[in-house]
Design goal:
4 strands, mainly alpha, two-stranded antiparallel ribbon, globular
Length: 418
């Protein structure tokens, strides 16, 4: 199948939207008592599967758009400018929204968590057994120096390089890691695209990716800083992005050769992906070492297969469906980085409205205590998801894109490239 510039993977738009939505569920559903139901707890607990698949998908899509016949379609500086303009406005928008929300909830002071609400508040990253250890031992308020240092990291999109804790809005580490991937793309993508025996190289990359978690497991290093390094260090996570670039090359080679998998082959891949996901949901409840292996490399073949399957999906005939597919796909990264402040606002609003009365507001300290005693209702959870999706569709189109376009007018971008 010859490649055209207008080729668009509608199946991948839906995939990245679903990945973003799953991350929202992973980070928020645990606040509801119903999440403790055995099946629901396991199925909603593999957030790293979605994040890793998203990183692989990023490499796949960038290779499709920017790398043709083993060559970059525009100079590296122009590519970097476009990627920076795409990420940075969303990053700053998320930071400002998060800081504003923290300011609001710190003044509301709803116990127990909001009494500690502060941009200084962080939790150390560890995967150690915490059965006999209080979570309070992991809580930390940054000093002035730490706050200044981590603020600079955030402004420079370098926050993923801090292996000890996440600051301000925790999921923003993914922006930092993505930007590092983008910096490497012009150097690695053409070379990977020209490689022969791509299946073999995908296997090699998977084995290389498994080296850090295996070393950590052999040394029994389940605490700091190793948990943070495996979780988000851009160099450690780079194999996912490289695998995505290679996977696109494999997909393109097979399509051009007319070697499209049949119904049986697709069915086998779907079964393998489902088996890996369900197996992950079961294994992460087991010994600690499974988490590291599953998080860093063991699921990479399944993630590649999932992307491959979705890339095969035919484009729908309905223009409306195609347009909404693209809008929801574009909302995927905002879903990753905006859902935490969105849920914070939604959950506090639900608690306050649950005790709202004239008498309550007359004595806010007592009202805040009553609000803190309220349990969140799963009945309103679909409303939260809907409002979050609306926010993440609106934000790129009305806040991020206009800022991006202004940036692109000032950055060194090759104008002839659409």
């Amino acid at each position: 199948m010859p490649r055209t510039d207008k080729e668009h993977f509608i199946g991948l738009e839906w995939l990245r939207f679903i990945l973003g939505l799953y991350i929202v569920v992973f980070h928020t559903l645990h606040n509801y008592p119903e999440q403790q139901l055995p099946i629901l707890k396991q199925l909603s607990g593999a957030g790293f599967f979605a994040t890793s698949t998203f990183f692989v998908l990023s490499g796949f899509l960038l290779a499709h758009v920017y790398c043709q016949r083993g060559q970059m379609r525009e100079p590296a500086v122009s590519f970097w400018s476009r990627r920076f303009a795409n990420l940075y406005p969303l990053h700053i928008f998320s930071l400002l929204l998060t800081i504003s929300v923290i300011f609001v909830i710190s003044n509301l002071g709803i116990p127990p968590d909001d009494t500690k609400a502060s941009i200084r508040f962080v939790v150390y990253d560890t995967n150690e057994d915490m059965t006999d250890i209080s979570r309070a031992t992991l809580e930390h308020f940054m000093s002035n120096g730490e706050l200044a240092f981590n603020s600079v990291l955030q402004l420079l999109m370098l926050q993923a390089w801090n292996p000890f804790y996440l600051t301000f809005n925790a999921p923003l580490w993914s922006i930092s890691t993505l930007f590092f991937f983008y910096l490497t793309f012009p150097f690695v993508a053409p070379r990977l695209a020209r490689l022969k025996h791509k299946v073999l190289w995908l296997g090699i990359i998977t084995l290389i990716y498994l080296i850090p978690p295996v070393l950590v497991i052999l040394n029994g290093d389940y605490g700091m800083p190793f948990t943070g390094i495996l979780h988000r260090n851009p160099l450690v996570r780079l194999p996912e992005f490289l695998a995505g670039i290679l996977a696109y090359g494999l997909f393109r080679d097979m399509q051009d050769a007319g070697r499209t998998p049949g119904t049986g082959g697709v069915g086998l891949m779907i079964a393998a992906v489902l088996a890996c996901f369900l197996g992950t949901a079961w294994l992460i409840e087991g010994p600690q070492f499974w988490y590291y292996l599953l998080h860093n490399g063991l699921l990479l073949p399944a993630q590649i297969m999932l992307i491959y399957i979705c890339a095969l999906a035919a484009s729908p005939s309905s223009e409306s469906v195609r347009r909404w597919s693209q809008r929801l796909g574009a909302a995927s990264l905002p879903l990753f980085v905006l859902h935490v402040p969105a849920f914070t606002l939604f959950s506090r609003s639900e608690k306050v409205l649950g005790v709202a009365s004239g008498e309550c507001f007359a004595n806010w300290a007592q009202c805040a205590v009553q609000a803190g005693e309220q349990e969140l209702s799963i009945v309103f959870y679909p409303l939260f998801l809907l409002l979050t999706v609306i926010l993440c569709v609106w934000a790129p189109e009305n806040a991020v894109v206009p800022t991006r376009n202004r940036l692109l007018k000032r950055l060194p971008v090759r104008r002839s490239t659409s």
